[in-house]
């Protein structure tokens, strides 16, 4: 992979250079990363649509507020589920499982989140975006996919060492500063 180790299981935090709405202040969990590119889930973009509307059998298993999250712009008709613990399929983040949404929930799937679509990068694209400073690469916590989406971007930045923690205070609209 041209000198890069796999980034699977890590977080991409949108830098202040990203102003386009799809990824503005996004926190992305990298699910796959290799020679063919990368795929991940935006963790902090809830939609206005409920799980009960689209996947009613999962409605009692998802965490409040029970909405579907927008995992990214690629294949928005594809559903991907995550749950805390190791009760589903292995994921690249220890302490978090991928769910078989067609198989139906079990009592151990409580607190799940369901994502529509995913984020994707072609070969070398993510590496280029990292090199140009579009993303901050940080270590993920198993709590991140299930944290408050309204403050996840800032919360993840605040726990980083050094100057990166100060980015959490960057104004949403710098022109108003």
Mean pLDDT: 92
Tell me what portion of residues adopts beta-strand conformation.
25-35%
Question: Structural class, from secondary structure content?
Answer: mainly beta
One letter per element, helices H and strands E, the order comes to: EEEEHEEEEEHEH
Uncertain runs with pLDDT below 50, 5 residues or more? none
Overall shape: it is: globular
Would you kindly provide a written description of the structure presented here, covering whatever features stand out?
By secondary structure, the protein is mainly beta. It is built from three helices and ten strands. Strands 1, 2, 3, 4, 5, 6, 7, 8, 9 and 10 form a ten-stranded mixed sheet that branches. Strand 7 and strand 8 form a beta hairpin.
List keywords for this structure.
mainly beta, ten-stranded mixed β-sheet, 177 residues
Helix and strand arrangement:
Blueprint: E1 10-14, E2 27-34, E3 37-42, E4 46-50, H1 51-54, E5 67-70, E6 74-84, E7 89-90, E8 96-99, E9 113-121, H2 125-131, E10 135-139, H3 152-158
Parallel strand pairs: 5-9
Antiparallel strand pairs: 1-2, 1-10, 2-3, 3-9, 4-5, 6-8, 6-9, 7-8
Short structural description:
With 177 residues, this protein is mostly beta strands.
């Amino acid at each position: 992979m041209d000198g890069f180790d796999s980034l699977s299981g890590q977080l991409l935090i949108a830098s202040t250079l990203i102003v386009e709405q799809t990824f503005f202040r996004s926190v992305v969990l990298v699910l796959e990363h290799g020679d063919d590119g990368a795929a991940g889930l935006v963790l902090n973009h809830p939609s206005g649509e409920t799980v009960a509307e689209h996947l009613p059998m999962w409605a009692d298993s998802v965490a409040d507020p029970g909405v579907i999250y927008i995992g990214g712009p690629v294949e928005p008709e594809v559903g991907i589920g995550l749950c805390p613990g190791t009760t589903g399929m292995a994921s690249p983040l220890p302490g978090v499982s991928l769910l078989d949404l067609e198989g139906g929930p079990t009592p151990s799937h409580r607190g799940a989140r369901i994502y529509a679509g995913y984020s994707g990068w072609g070969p070398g694209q993510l590496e280029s975006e990292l090199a140009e400073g579009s993303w901050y690469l940080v270590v993920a916590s198993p709590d991140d996919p299930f944290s408050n989406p309204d403050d996840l971007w800032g919360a993840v930045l605040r726990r980083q060492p050094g100057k990166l923690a100060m980015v959490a205070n960057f104004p949403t609209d710098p022109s108003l500063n």
